[in-house]
Amino acid sequence: MELVGLISLLAVLQFVVFGILVGRARGVYGVKAPATTGHEQFERWFRVHYNTLEKLIVFLPALWLFGYYVGQYYAAGLGLIYLVGRLLYAVSYTRDPASRTLGTLVSELPILIMIIGGIIAISLDLAAG
Known about the structure:
With 129 residues, this protein is mainly alpha-helical. The longest helix is centred in the middle third of the chain and has 30 residues, at 40-69. It has one domain: Up-down Bundle (Four Helix Bundle (Hemerythrin (Met), subunit A)). The protein contains four helices and no strands.
């Protein structure tokens, strides 16, 4: 499960970096804490960070359970796809929020696969006794 652990830490690191970029945007665009609105570019970075938090809550347990019940290599591969999707999402959303669809799909699909695959694998394990 070392690969699953590595992917988990990379996902957390990505989230931390997005948070740093929000802080940077606060300074660049003069949005004083605790405000979460102001300059449009700040708001885009803020949404990227917040949306990534929303995904992490689902991604991490799905990753670990899928890794345990299906296999760490499959989980790690899907996890890498998720990380790339989050990066695509961040780049596209901060350029033009209307262009975020590809990044959203590339990060959502692995999560969905891991949730459904995990449910099936756990169900089969339970049925086998």
